[in-house]
Amino acid sequence: MNPSDIFVRRSKCLNIWWDKEGLVFENYLTRSKIISNALLTHMLSELSDFTSLEEVLNRFARKGSNSWDDTIQTLVDKNILVIRDSALDIKENGLEMWKWDQPARYFHFATRDVKFSFSPLEEQKYFIELAKIEPLPNHYKDYPNAKFIKLASKAETDYLESNECLSSILMRRRTIRKFERKEISSDQLSRILSLTWGKTDSIDEGMIEPRVFKTSPSGGCRHPIETYLIVNRIESIPKGIYHYSVRRHGLELLNNGDFEERITDYCSGQPWFTNAAVLFVMTAVLERSMWRYRNSRTYRIIQLDAGHLAQTFHLVATSLNLGPLTTAGIQDTQIEIALGIDGVMEVVLYVCALGVPA
Fold it and tell me: I want to staple 277 with a disulfide (CB 3.0 to 4.6 A). Which of 134, 203, 256, 355 is the partner?
């Protein structure tokens, strides 16, 4: 094959980072990577457009153009360099149709095709050994020194249940963007929390089996989602920012005061959140899921967990004739500062609003 007839360019799907071995170049579309050096980095920086292999060899490899240079061959084999009109060239060009840029592309392709093991005996053995050196993260988060407001139990709010069938609630569900500036009852709030984010049951069968059950599924029964409330108009509950304690089914006061004027900023300027009676901010305690699943695909699963909970929230709110509204269009950093979380091991994901429909 004549090098003058072959044209190569650097991949459009390269991700670069430093690790212990050096500077890593990875094609996230094919999950292949190399360790780079100054010369390779220089060469790749100049190959954004197709260039004949002969020219590349003459300029960088310092070898004759009658044979493939081993380094160039490795770059092609590892999909760091792409040959014109190859299957990979066609696929990368097709990816240009995505309207999202590199972060979304990398996240999707870098978390594909993970190898899983589904042997219960092997898993149990592995997790027992892991728990000896790295105990399970706690399923519950509490603020023991915060002022605590106990909410009504499920039994005490059973009267709120309607006889409406699920199919009817599903058909009635609508996203509400106009709220009346009216209070909702603390019993309604308790019902929303218990049926959406609350604990329905739990078991504890040893060091690797403490499990919490909720009305929505969670990957590996890890339930990484925590819930914080920004209370505007709840009967008998002062305005402020609270954390929902799943363990105690109540509210822990983190910061009292009126945060209504900041809600629009938290929700990226969306005006329809301002009149909501209460906002529920869902965060993820990453360590809970990370303990069991060490691969990056788990981050996808955590997002799905939040989605399951949001749908449950919509249905419970509809059954109570209240208005649900959810958004991922939020200002993460502002909210994390307001909640007092680190934004690293606990991160904000999603916001749900509740109020009386206008």
Answer: 355
Same domain, 164 and 95: no
167 & 219 share domain: yes
Residue 148 lies in a domain: yes
Task: Return all residues near 326 (Cβ < 8 A) that are at least 6 apart.
Answer: 175, 310, 313, 314, 350, 351, 352, 353
The count of residues in the chain is 358
The SS3 call for residue 280 is strand
Domain that holds residue 99: 3-110
For the stretch 250-298, pLDDT in tens is 999 999 999 999 999 999 999 999 899 999 999 999 999 999 998 999 9
Q: Any alpha helices (H) in the chain, and if so which ranges?
A: 38-45, 53-56, 70-77, 87-95, 102-110, 120-133, 166-172, 186-196, 260-266, 286-292, 298-319, 332-339
List of residues 6+ apart from 37 with CB closer than 8 A: 22, 23
Number of domains comprising the chain: 2
